[in-house]
Amino acid sequence: GATVGILGGGQLGRMMALAGSAMGYRFIALDPASDGPSAQVGGSIEAAYDDREAARQLAEQCDVITYEFENVDAGVAAMLMEQSYVPQGSQLLYTTQHRLREKRAVEAAGAKVAPYAEIGSEQELREAVQRLGLPAVLKTATGGYDGKGQWVIRSEEEIPAAYAELAKAGTELVLEQFIRFSKELSVIAARGSHGEVRVFPPAENIHVDNILHLSIVPARVEPTVLAEAERLALRIVEGLGAVGLVAVELFLTEDGQLYVNELAPRPHNSGHYTMEACRTSQFEQHVRAVCGLPLGDTSLMSPVVMVNVLGQHLEPIIQRMAARDSEAERLGTAPKLHLYGKVEAKSGRKMGHVNVLAPNTDAALAWIEGTGIWQAENEA
Ligand code: ATP
Ligand code: MG
Ligand code: MG
Fold it and tell me: Which of 38, 55, 145, 166 has CB atoms 3.0–4.6 Å from 13's, for a disulfide?
């Protein structure tokens, strides 16, 4: 089989390599840490992401190169394209690593985003707040994740502090109108190198402290909303001419409108549920797409809720999984634990996740509630 290089060595790369190994591929990750989650599964080159010599080494050893995060240095990506095969190209990275470029691409594909403004100075921020109203969310255009690099501005008094804080990052800033969503959804679409497209069932996502906590599938929304969410994701992946996965994060409002929040050109945390619940996992699908295989069937085989296991949840979850679980039996659930092999269980750090397969999503949520790591407001 061919050798696939992955830029990045975190859990997404690890799960990509696990899925792809079963398909006969070999994997080498380029990662600054020597013992990261994916180095434990395939080979690895320990180097910074913008280390050109290391990237050249990777290109020499690999037939195909992909990435597990979007902040890959554009110059490195361009160099890799000359020396190896990078089916996703560099345009997709260029677009999705910058919120303004991404929003323009989403709009060009025919989907809505929250009204927004480009911010270059505190004065521009004041004017944009006048126009878009409060609350509004100020974000760095690049580099943010898990809500880092954001400030929800609720009153005009916060403007100077918000601007000063985010301007520190030294990137452009974006102000977005605050969308009073009733639910957050995400849809993962895949496009093969010959233009074939498939979409996974939309997930309903619940965040706690800006970190994904639960993904509930099927999402508890009207079938028309599900269909529209899938249609938008397909338009976006086609509009971008992407290869591989594109995750589309959406806000659903009370009156049924869908707004695109952001994109990710890679496997997504909210797609981990596919590992046991779909006929093809998001990781297998990504490997299929970048390796030129036909895309797999994305059908859902069982209702499922994915719960993230953060550092502070690790002990209780491991104990729960190690004991005979009569509650799981009573509820008819099958909780499947995935751990990423990270050594230090720091609070807030993503250590693993549990996919709780169940006869229905209420039973899965009941099991999760019973573990004591339930944090979201129980909205049911
Ligand atoms: P991720 O870890 O998903 O990459 P991120 O740091 O890139 O996160 P966003 O996805 O832009 O950040 O925002 C994080 C969360 O903040 C969203 O999931 C949503 O709950 C909330 N949020 C962001 N933008 C808005 C908005 N314009 N209106 C309302 N809520 C928002
Ligand atoms: Mg993001
Ligand atoms: Mg997000």
Answer: 38
